Target: BamA/TamA family outer membrane protein
Amino acid sequence: MMSRFSFPLSVLVASLWLAVAGCSGTKFIPEGSKLYTGSTVKLKSDAAIPNESELTTQLEGVIAPKPNSSILGLRPKLYFWHMGVGKEKGLGHWLADKYGEKPVLLAEVDTQRVQDLMRNRLNNNGYFKPTVTSKIITKDQTASVDYTANVGKPYRIKEIHFPDRDTLLDAAIRATQPGTLLKVGDPYNLQTFINERTRIDAALKNQGYYYFTPEYILFQVDSTLDNEANVYVKVKGTIPPKAARPYVLNRVTLNTDFKLSDTTTNVQPMMYQGYRYFPDESMFRAKAITNAVFLYPDSVYRRRRSDQTLARLMSLGTFKYVDIQYRPARNAPDSAEYGKLNSLVRMTQVPKKSLRAELQMNVSNIFTGPALVVEYRNRSALRGAEQLIVNATASVEQGKGTLSGITSTQYGIDAKLLVPRLITPPFDIRLANSDFQPRTFFNAGYKLVSRTEYFRQDVFNLGYGYSWKTKATNEQQFQPIDLQYNRLSGVTGRFQDILDQRPFLARSFRQQFILGSSYTYTYNQQVLDNKRNQIYFSGGINLSGNLAYLIQSLAGASKMPIGDTNPRDAYTLFGQAYSQYTQVNLELRDYFRTSLDPTSGNKFATRLLIGVGMPYKNSDVLPYLKQYGIGGPNSIRAFNARGLGPGTYRTTAAEQGGFYDQVGDIKLEANVEYRQDLFPYVKGALFVDAGNVWLVNADPSRVTYDDNGNPDGLNGQFKFNTFMKQIAVGAGAGIRIDVQFFVIRLDAAYPLIYPYSFTAPVGSPEGLYEDKPTGFKPVKLNIAIGYPF
Model:
């Protein structure tokens, strides 16, 4: 017999919840004891208390111990703890260990210690001689503690005096006074004094005072005045002589092949541009390293330059470890004022060449299938720390849903050369104040895309540009040359019929050159881990064909007829038309963490995307690869990828597989998502997505209709007085399995607002369009890798 009785699982869950929820926790308190339920803090004063809420928070922070957690006055964790009392294994022990919490008793509260800590915090904020009292409030088997702090007026800074002795050290400290954090009239605050000491030390470190430390700074505070204090900044009377002396660099040694297991080297150093350099000519030319070093012989020691050298050398991507050691110079002459330091920069290399293969899986609601990526990397291809990266890719994806039976294959190879400097002859630009290595990049590639039942396309690209960062949060990229050539090398009869019916689509797919240039600026606060509200912004502009058009028009070149349908004249290059357009892309994200805990994943994530492409002169439509699609697992999740627009355009039932023309020149998208930690490595999410795409020029072949089934004459074109009515909206919920280096995302989304009407066009045959789904049929399930934004 398997069991003696059984009953529905729902009854079991309900009974368990009632047992837990019905328990306040007091039944588990030992006789004669009181359950500690928490404390309150109240500030009293005859005068106004500046920053009262912040000061109250500081006082609350010293209260210990913390009471048991409760939900609406109930303490289910005490119930789970009780289930494990006296048990070393079994379900009760597991629940107690996983979810239980031992009762916190009043006897554990040391009110005198808490009062002393509160007085200390009040003193630190300028409230001298405060009184703090406590009162225990009991009720049945529980007890709480109320703390009351009585304070007078806070002491404020009346005068600030910096050192006035005639020494190099005192003069250096006086020179930092314009940036002082101490302000006349501000309340006395210990943390401000600590920060000021750190600020002075940082300034001295950049003026040669290598051995100075913040502890050598003293603040003498005269508080005998009526709620006012005079502050005297001084140096301790006895500090090591070396701490009071600035230093210059005597000898700078660069070892580019230091091994952690070795303490000696057989390679003899050479002198290069004043550096004592241990060469590794098989890997580097000396100039490649010295360009990233900002420590110069006979220059004043500056910690800023030391940190910058570390950052630049590590960003080369050729070193596993870099450290800098400083030692007093033994034989160097020592004047009465300045000392001398020898510097040793030790660099441990990573292997020069590497080969990596990675198997990926693309999962979306359009195509799914594997992809193989093979990467070859040479970290000093030209012996100047240039990184050569060659990627070969191959993927085979199978269509899903309306694209079932369609196979998409893609093969490609691309190469990129990253040069760790800005190549801008005749100028030598080093960005001397940046911690990040600027780069010049060159790239070239070829890709073959094949879609069974449709087409085969060749894509060639060639370009070069620059990327640089001035801060950890700011990055810029300028690509003056971004050439691309697209060619339809094979078209099926089915796809040719689509092209014949869609002249706009035909012109976007035609053979053409893209003579592009681009600039992108990115501001990203996500690198600031402890910041509660993080902003991400990316703005870019792409231009194509303008210079070529100007030159040909000034030279009087003749335009050539292009296009089999709706032919038009355009300038050509090597017999092929080139695209001319301006495209602007803007993306703004905001991540607000709802918890004060910096490790919490509970946050609101919002995103706004705006994309506008304006074809003109030589083009009346953007190239297909530059057009915008919307919908899918990383966009509006309640609709298929590229399943919306342009405008109110709706594909017929027979065209459901021909999704290629649901793209536009203008894109507007907004997303709001709340993310919540559920369990270790598991997060939940609720989201709302909205947006659509539109055309700059109306497309007569894509007829759009109003709510009564009549043609509205817009044909997918963007209009300011109608676009808000054409926004699609979807909402849903999801689960994320987040193991930090890998995220699997499962989303279920439901369309709330369709951009098009379900009324059949006037005079259209029955069954031309699908009927509006009902019930739960339109729920869209998405499986994806990574977060949507």
Residues 1-18 have pLDDT under 50 and may be disordered. DSSP finds twelve helices and 31 strands in the chain. The two ends are 54 Å apart (CA to CA).
